[in-house]
Each structure stands twice: as structure tokens, then as C-alpha cells.
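Figure S7 source data.
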Amino acid sequence: MLSVKIVGLGKYLPKKILTNHDLERMVDTSDEWITTRTGIKRRRIVEGESASDLGTKAARRAIKAAAVKPEDIELIIVATITPDTQFPSTACYIQKNIGAKKAAVFDVSAACSGFVYALAVAKGMISAGLYKNALVVGSEILSSITDWNDRSTCVLFGDGAGAAVVVPTTESKGILGIHLGGDGNLADLLILPAGGSRLPVSKSTVENRQHYIKMRGNEVFKIAVKIMVDTVVKALANSKLRPQDIDLLVPHQANLRIINAVAKRLGLEENRVFVNINKYGNMSSASTAVALCEAYESGRIKKGDIVALDTFGGGLVWASCIIRWD
Ligand code: UT7
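C-alpha cells for the predicted oxa(dethia)-CoA complex:
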């Protein structure tokens, strides 16, 4: 059975920076509250760009790093909960922008776990011999679904995109093991209520602010720590490894307190955990993609390292992936 390895990474963050002090002027909050409760100091916010615009820029960088030609890309999977349009998929727009004429294209909706879900799908399709390479993108414009009047959520989110190019490799390298899961019973904990077929857009959905993220943050927090430990331990077991084998944990960047609690339970010291939430906040599917790219570009990942991606998010859904860096 073939596996897949990552041969190129890219990221793109919009230029505009929104600091905690900026938010102090928008809602009843403080830099001190946001920093101590979440670890976030600032986030990036788009000015007129869409998910495909950000994803295209990240994709071009990943393709360049991988030294592949866009026209040779065979599969594009985009993880996003903030697509350009409900349909066509954001993958279609990225395909057009980069000129990947022969690629199969679709989006994956798995919230903050989307990038790892998309990597898992790419691995499955490549391992099955359907494609020889794939471009996997996580791109989000969370500012477009953020209620800027709701202090309990608006301080958390940001915009950005990350991308990876994956190709086949032998079984003991690249992605060693994956664990995916979900529990739809917990759907209401983190939800964008309106705009879909259940509650189509109407005057009342707009007036009731139902086109914005609603989150029962405290409840999500408690479940998140347990889920993130559980899923990464299962992915490690699928890879015949244990927590102490992890060289670098790249967790979903939702809250620094969650990341620290997960690391503690896994017995990982600070130098084996990648954190960039201070700069970008929570970018849903883009968080892990950007974090992985920054971890690699900053020299935190070396050949042979065991890298663990560990995510959870709205659904609730969770996903982990163990990579032997090649
Ligand atoms: O990636 C998707 C998954 N999402 C997450 O992982 C998020 C998980 N949850 C969290 O990260 C945390 O629950 C939050 C950061 C969202 C909230 O932190 P918390 O420690 O759970 O705070 P809380 O919701 O229990 O609120 C504590 C207090 C409340 O005031 P009272 O009722 O104690 O008087 C809130 O009204 O903090 C208040 N509060 C704020 N105060 C200042 C809530 N938001 C803010 C704010 N600024 N922005």
C-alpha cells in the first residue's frame, strides 16, 4: 500500500492586522482578558479578498516549493467553511486561478479539522492509485461569519490560508497513520445557524443575526481537550507509535489553554509543541495548514521527525495525522 508525503507547503495571510487593542474600541473587552483566556494578541483580516484569493496565493507557494507545474496537478481538495460561493466549490476557483486544467476539484466541510480531513481524503485517493499528486488547501475568511457585536466570539477568529502538495511514497514514510471522528449530537455547540437549506436567508434570519458563528465556548473547551488527546493517541496507535515519539505536535490553534492542557496530558514539553495562535487567532481549517507551513519554514521540522497534526472543531469533528517527515 502506498502512502503520501508532503513535498511543498505554502501560506498566505492578509495584510491587515486587527489587534486586541483595536477590539477594545469595538466591544466591551480588554487585551488582558483576550491574552489570558486565549493566548491571542492579534489576527489578520481581509479587505475585499475571498477564500479562493487567499487559497490561490497559498497554493501557488506550495506548488513552487514542490517544484510541480500547475498543469500537472491531478486533484485539488479545499477545506473551508467560508467558501466563495455555496457552489461551485472554492476548489473550482483555485483551479481556474492557478491553471490546473486537468485536476479533479472539490471542497471538504469539516470545520477546524478540515485540513486534516482533506489530507486523509488525498491520501486515500492517491493510495488507491487514482491520482499521482494532490493540492490540499485550508482557506478561511472567518471575518465574514463573525458577529462583530459579540465579544464572546469576535475576539477569537482570523483569516488566512495554507496549502500542501502531496505525492506517493513508500509505506514507512510520509503519513503513517490517521484518525478521524465526529459526534453530530454536539452540532449545536458550534454552528452557523442560517443560510443553508434548513434556514434559508430571510429578513428575519438577518435581523436575528443568524448568519454568524454561534458558540457555547465553555462547553466546547471542556470537550476539546479530551477529544484532542484521544484522537492523536489513536492516530499514533494506527502508526504503531506513542505520545513520547512525537517530535513536534502541530495542534489546531483555538485557544492556548487548550493547547497547553493537551500537551501536558501527552507529556510533551513546550519545545515539542508549535504555537502561532498569538499572531493569527483561530483560522479554522487554515490554522493547522498555516502552522505546519510555519513550523517547517522556521526549521522546527527536520527530516525523519515525527510530526503530529491534532485538530477538533464544529460538528463536533476531530482529526489527527502522524507524519514521518521525509
Ligand atoms: O476552533 C473551534 C473550537 N472552538 C474552541 O475551541 C473555543 C473553545 N472555548 C474557548 O476557547 C473559551 O471557552 C473562550 C475563550 C471562548 C471563553 O473563555 P472562558 O474562559 O470559557 O470564558 P467564559 O465563556 O466562561 O466567560 C467568562 C466571563 C463571562 O463573564 P461572567 O459571566 O463570568 O461575568 C463572559 O461574559 O468572561 C466574559 N467574556 C468576556 N469578557 C471580556 C466573554 N468574552 C469576553 C471578552 N472580553 N471578549
